[in-house]
Automatic annotation (TrEMBL):
InterPro entries reported in the protein's UniProt record: PKAT, PKAT_KLD
GO biological process, one term: cell adhesion
Organismal lineage: Eukaryota, Metazoa, Chordata, Craniata, Vertebrata
Name of protein: QNR71 protein
GO cellular component terms given for this protein: plasma membrane
A Pfam family matched in the record: PKAT_KLD
Source species of the chain: Cinclus mexicanus (American dipper)
GO molecular function annotation: integrin binding
Segments forming domain PKAT KLD: 71-121
Length: 147
């Protein structure tokens, strides 16, 4: 950039830019530019406020089901993703994403199945077109019971 040059309208700035793409050719560009910026609120915070094991009969006990009650602040989410990982939150075991419809207040229940007992790291991500927010928790699933 060679710097701004003066013009008769002091609110506008003209910049002359030198572009040297192949070492021998000089291209000079002069002009005006403008842009607009839209600020959106986005999803500011996600909290897992409750985890409840769903009691099932012995004939249904192939998977342990857990309901996660989740709240958020800011704009309303349009999708939710749940990543189940090992207890260190390093090795992902499964990921499920679903579209959701939240109409008034950001309070939703997410049901997830666990194939075997153990301790898991749960990451729940709520997202919309412009933002994402994440909450994490450790959960111990004990053959139909969780703590």
């Amino acid at each position: 950039t060679t710097g701004p040059s003066s013009v008769s309208d002091s609110s506008l700035t003209v910049e002359s830019v030198e572009d040297n793409p192949d070492g021998g050719c000089h291209i000079y560009r002069n002009g005006y530019y403008g842009s607009s910026l839209a600020v959106v609120e986005g999803i500011l915070e996600v909290n897992i406020i409750q985890m409840t094991s769903i009691q099932m009969t012995e004939s249904q006990a192939e998977n342990s089901l857990v309901d996660f009650v989740v709240t958020c602040q800011g704009s309303l989410p349009t999708d939710v993703c749940t990543v189940v990982s090992d207890p260190t939150c390093q090795v992902s075991k499964s990921m499920v994403c679903d579209p959701i419809v939240v109409t008034d207040e950001c309070l939703l229940t997410i049901r997830r199945a666990f194939e075997e007992p153990g301790t898991y790291c749960i990451n729940i991500t709520l997202g919309d077109d412009t933002s994402q927010a994440l909450a994490s928790a450790l959960i111990s699933v004990n053959g139909g019971e969780s703590t």
